[in-house]
Amino acid sequence: MKYATRRKAGSFDSTSYGRELARTAKEGKYSPGAMSTIVGQAGARAGQVAQESKADIRGYLQARGMGNSIAGAKMLSSPDAVRMRTVSDTAGKLTADNELSKTQARMDYARARMGYDEGRRAEDNAATGDLVGGLAGAAGNAYKGYIGDQREGEFNTEFKTAQDLMKTGKPEDLNQAEMILSKWMMRYGYAQ
């Protein structure tokens, strides 16, 4: 007796979505290289702005004759402080966003994996149900042909054994039950 089987898909981790979620959960949405590049670009742009501001401040101080004053030195250090704050803020926001993406990816991974596993279990249960239903129907047909036979006790014993094996749901037990029932079906002309 043959029954339809399906090719089992791999685990959730072998799907592209599963691999992407696992990678995001580990690294975040920004790889370390991407974070470094983004912070570097923000720092470079902030540095350009700071240099332009310092040039403007120097011109202002020279025009007023305050080139070497304490107030002038303080004004010249201000753009560097703004640049460092900008780089620091950018790095902090990226890190926070990256950590949030890791947490979200872990939750999405768990949710998706649970759904994937439930789908696989449902498919397996449906396939097992079809097999058990087919075997039970075949067993009933074999029994009808056997009612008049003198060895009813032997059939009942083997039929009970087959039912017990089908209840376990284990593939090896289902195969054994199929063999027992097939023997009786062939004996009474119900071979498929």
Describe it.
Helix 3 runs antiparallel to helix 4. The protein has one domain. By secondary structure, it is mainly alpha-helical. The chain starts with 15 loop residues before the first helix and ends in a 5-residue tail after the last helix. The chain is built from 5 helices and no strands.
Spell out the key features of this protein.
192 residues, mainly alpha, 5 helices, 81% helix
Give the topology, please.
Elements: H1 16-27, H2 32-64, H3 70-146, H4 152-168, H5 171-187
Number of helices: 5
Low-pLDDT segments, ≥5 res: 1-7
Q: How many structural domains in the coordinates? A: 1
**Average pLDDT taken over every residue:** 75
Rg to the nearest angstrom?
A: 37 Å
Estimate the global geometry from the Cα principal axes.
rod-shaped
Look at the helices and sheets and give the structural class. mainly alpha
The total of beta strands comes to 0
Kindly state the percentage of residues in helix: over 70%
Topology as a string of helices (H) and strands (E): HHHHH
Give the end-to-end Cα distance, rounded to a whole number of Å. Answer: 6 Å
